[in-house]
Write a structure and sequence with these properties.
Layout (H helix, E strand, L loop, with lengths): L1 E5 L3 H12 L5 E6 L2 H11 L3 E5 L7 H12 L7 E6 L5 H9 L3 E4 L4 H13 L6 H12 L15 H11 L4 H8 L3 H15 L4 H11 L7
Helix pairs in contact: 2-3, 3-4, 6-10, 7-9, 7-10, 8-9, 9-10
Length: 219
Amino acid sequence: MRIVLADDERMVRTALRVILDAEEDLEVVGEAATGAEAVSVVRSLRPDVVLMDVRMPEIDGIQATRQILSGFGQEPEAPRIVVVTTFENDAYVYDALRVGAVGFLLKRASPEELVSAVRLVARSDSLLYPAAVRTLVADHARRRPPAPPAWAARLTEREAEVLRRMAKGLTNAEIAEGMGVGPATVKSHVAAVLAKTGARDRTQAVIAAYESGFLRAGA
């Protein structure tokens, strides 16, 4: 898995590189010290995963994430961007998720958590730290008046159930087992959910579900 590190602190980038390059299946292929540089490096190297600091010079990680993903459109080769942050309940993190980051990772995470997170998002069939993502999204969604989702009426009963299970962070295999269907069926339902909600990925679909009131905190 090819990784790009974007952080304005050189020591942070060096520490991350040492941890990731020690793994046989992971390789850091590029680094960036500013948001603008991150956009350029990612577009040039086309990595699988980007670890993106949210507060950087020139443009922040939110704008960098938006610009990177806009250049890929809906291509499946678009990199998976993970926000690296000091505080989990941060408006910057929420905004980054809304523009396309797939999850966030705390800077105090252990090396084992870092490596596991990179592998998980590269596999892309589950949310990264689902409980933390749900808490963050639900907390911010409460501050917005729900917008009745037109797409909710277009979901089949099975698709709606898949979306609820996606929000719990279940993988396709876990959803299939819980619903008594095959993995291929779940994969088809997930694709339909993403299409109907207009979401790029699972994280975006969960955000849409909470912001619209389709899902509610604590439900």
